[in-house]
UniProtKB/TrEMBL annotation, chain A:
PANTHER family: NADH DEHYDROGENASE (PTHR22773). It catalyses: a quinone + NADH + 5 H(+)(in) = a quinol + NAD(+) + 4 H(+)(out). This is NADH-quinone oxidoreductase subunit N. One of its GO terms (biological process) is ATP synthesis coupled electron transport.
TrEMBL record, chain B:
Keywords: Cell membrane, Membrane, NAD, Quinone, Transmembrane, Transmembrane helix. GO terms for molecular function: NADH dehydrogenase (ubiquinone) activity; quinone binding. This is NADH-quinone oxidoreductase subunit J. Belongs to the complex I subunit 6 family. GO terms for cellular component: plasma membrane.
Length: 481, 201
């Protein structure tokens, strides 16, 4: 019956965040309608505080706490810092957008922070229940955020689709986990590995469990053939929420796959490798081909996300430190590009106008040369044109896959990436070579201008000097395996 | 042992028959009532497994709260059965093939040696003074305290989300605001006007 009080130190960021969420909710309640920006600044402050604490407790050793349910290591800390940065950028980008559309409510901020908490739980989970609860905390907040714009029929439809398919995916995931539990008798990820190594349980049961787990993960990652929700949700949700769904949760999903497939089921790598090859090729093919036909830019970016997920999965297929760290680099690069792309869509929109058609970008160069240049950088990066970060991310993933001996996979991926370049370049053509249909000036605040410039600059600089970020990813992976 | 077997098989057959009824009966209200029956009998099965707390929680939470709500919703909704049945036979072959494959796969796994009684031993019967509830409570507040707190946070999210999506301040209704009525002061309601007294003529 002896019980030692757990060591709370590794979980300080989570505890601080939960405390601050309650503060934000209460402060918003008392601040009332006129001081809504208080929640905005409090949320940014909270994220800064979390980053400060995470940086303070950062160390390269692996720390388990809460009876082995929580793990803090270099990977989780690095991913958490990236998540804070991304969420803060999302908040700054969306401020003008949400205040024009009546979404500037306390719930927007509290749900964003709740989702952030869910992501943090996911990346530092070392128990199947913790993983599951983390993903539920994230998904539930996201479902509600999509539905936040109550009067919009499209948003409500997107939320219902997202909710139903998300619940189905959770069911798959849980069913797979219950199989793994039935075969090994443990829910701890580290013990799961040991139990598989000893080979006491039947291999077939693991494979059946694995199929369900991989299906559940693919739903959450929006990999083909489990991708159907992504375009509808991206298109239907308010752009600020789309930006949030498309960015930070991908970092958490990377952590989730690392914890579950690599750390927990690494012994079954030969089994899941084949599954991921199928998912990856299908995602790259469907994503890149269908994106060509889209006229709505949010929908186009959703298909582009699906194709990028295929490239991220390539890193996992490569197995080994290089593969995982290149996948991590790719995810970070992808998040940077998504932030910029959706940020610009929001900047172009104004009251009663969403700027979500591709044709809305016509002649952007004449209306705002700087914004057009930033969009040019982002589109080049997404297409994988050197020297942008997107090029180096693809190169690193391809190198890792080549080392693993999948030459044909690299050839297929390169061809599909070339096909994908078409729809990115089309936007550039619209911006620079077409006459604008709408000549009204684009107004935005200086803080957003600084942010979008930093974002564009980061895409170029990290593409020219990728060593720092690559080294960070590699050391994060090395210290936690 | 024989008595327990008898109880198990009778409860299990009730569960299966009522579960079949849930998905085959035409009237949705009957379906919900049969689902209640399935829950109650399953909680009997859990009692046989000596999981008393879970058995009671199932009845209290699911039957007592969730299913009653469900019943109200089903009674209130006007469900058009013919519309729902449209296209049933068109899609039936696909569904049947998928269901068949799933059943075969699942039975292959569950019939495998791993889950046979040779590998998984029958758990020991606990003594009379063993408290299931106490053990669960101990685990929840010690080993599983982290996930317990997370579950609490998820409930908080559910509350925030439900309120954010459904709460609306209607301005067109004429309800009275009790707090404003109580907080009213004499000066707001009563206006004393000084006016010259009228003279009798």
């Amino acid at each position: 019956m002896d019980f030692l009080l757990p060591d709370f130190t590794p979980a300080y960021p989570e505890i601080f965040l939960l405390f601050m969420i309650c503060v934000v909710m209460l402060a918003d309640l008392f601040a009332g309608e006129k001081n809504r920006l208080l929640s905005f600044y409090l949320s940014l402050l909270t994220l800064a505080g979390c980053a400060f604490i995470t940086y303070g407790i950062y160390s390269t050793e692996v720390r388990y706490t809460f009876s082995g349910m929580f793990v803090g290591d270099a990977m989780s800390d690095t991913l958490k810092l990236m998540i804070y940065l991304t969420v803060a950028a999302v908040l700054i980008y969306s401020r003008a957008y949400i205040s024009l559309r009546g979404l500037l409510k306390g719930e927007f901020f509290s749900l964003t922070l709740f989702a952030t908490l869910g992501m943090m739980v996911m990346v530092s989970a070392s128990h199947l229940i913790t993983l599951y609860l983390g993903i539920e905390l994230l998904s539930l907040s996201l479902y509600a955020m999509v539905a936040l714009q109550r009067e919009s029929a499209v948003a409500t439809e997107a939320a219902i689709k997202f909710f139903v398919l998300g619940a189905l995916a959770s069911g798959f995931l849980l069913y797979g986990m219950s199989m793994l539990y039935g075969a090994t008798g443990t829910l701890h990820i580290s013990e799961l590995t040991k139990s598989i190594q000893q080979g006491t349980a039947d291999h077939d049961i693991f494979v059946v469990g694995l199929v369900f787990v991989v299906a559940g993960i693919s739903f959450k990652l929006s990999a083909v053939p489990f991708h159907m929700w992504a375009p509808d949700v991206y298109e239907g949700a308010p752009t600020a929420i789309t930006l949030f769904i498309g960015s930070a949760p991908k970092l958490a999903a990377f952590g989730f796959v690392m914890r579950l497939l690599v750390e927990g089921l690494g012994e079954l790598a030969t089994d899941w490798q084949g599954m991921l090859v199928l998912l990856s090729v299908a995602s790259m093919a469907v994503g890149n081909f269908v994106a060509i036909a889209q006229l709505n830019i949010k929908r186009m970016l959703a298909y582009s996300t699906i194709s990028h997920v295929g490239f991220v999965l390539l890193g996992f297929i490569a197995i080994g430190e290089n593969g995982y760290s290149s996948a991590m680099f790719y995810v970070i690069a992808y998040v940077l590009m998504t932030l910029g792309a959706f940020g610009i869509i929001m900047l172009l929109s104004r009251e009663g106008f969403e700027a979500d058609k591709i044709s809305d970008f016509k002649g952007l160069n004449q209306r705002s040369p700087w914004l057009a240049f930033m969009m040019l950088l982002i589109m080049f990066s997404m297409a994988g044109v050197p020297p942008m970060i997107g090029f180096y991310a693809k190169l690193a993933v391809f190198q890792a896959v080549l080392e693993a001996g999948y030459v044909w996979l690299v050839v297929v991926a390169v061809v599909l990436a070339l096909i994908g370049a078409f729809y990115y370049l089309r936007i550039i053509k619209f911006m620079y070579f077409d006459a604008p249909e709408d000549t009204r000036p684009i107004l935005f605040k200086p803080d957003v201008r600084i942010l979008i410039s930093t974002n564009g600059l980061a895409i170029v600089l990290l593409g020219i000097f990728p060593q720092a970020l690559m080294g960070l990813s590699l050391s994060a992976i090395q210290h936690s395996m | 042992m024989i008595f327990q077997d008898f109880v198990f098989y009778s409860l299990a057959s009730v569960v299966i028959i009522s579960a079949l009824g849930v998905i085959t009966l035409r009237n949705p209200v009957y379906s919900v009532l049969l689902l209640v029956l399935a829950f109650v009998t399953s909680s009997g099965l859990w009692l046989l497994l000596e999981a008393e707390f879970l058995a009671i929680a199932l009845v209290v939470v699911y039957v007592g709260a969730v299913m009653v709500l469900f019943l109200f919703v089903v009674m209130m909704l006007d469900i058009n059965l013919d519309q729902m049945r449209e296209g049933f036979w068109k899609w039936f072959p696909f569904g049947a093939i998928l269901a068949f494959i799933m059943t075969v796969e699942m039975s292959m796994v569950l019939m495998s040696k791993q889950f046979s009684s040779e590998i998984i031993q029958t758990p020991e019967y606990k003594s009379v003074d063993y408290s299931n509830t106490k053990e669960l409570g101990r685990l929840i507040y010690t080993e599983y305290v982290y996930v317990f707190e997370l579950a609490a946070v998820i409930l908080l999210v559910a509350m925030v989300a439900a309120i954010a999506i459904t709460l609306r301040h209607r301005t067109d209704k004429k309800s009275s605001n009790a707090s404003r009525q109580i907080a009213v002061s004499r000066n707001e309601r009563l206006k004393v006007i000084s006016m010259p007294a009228e003279k009798k003529e």
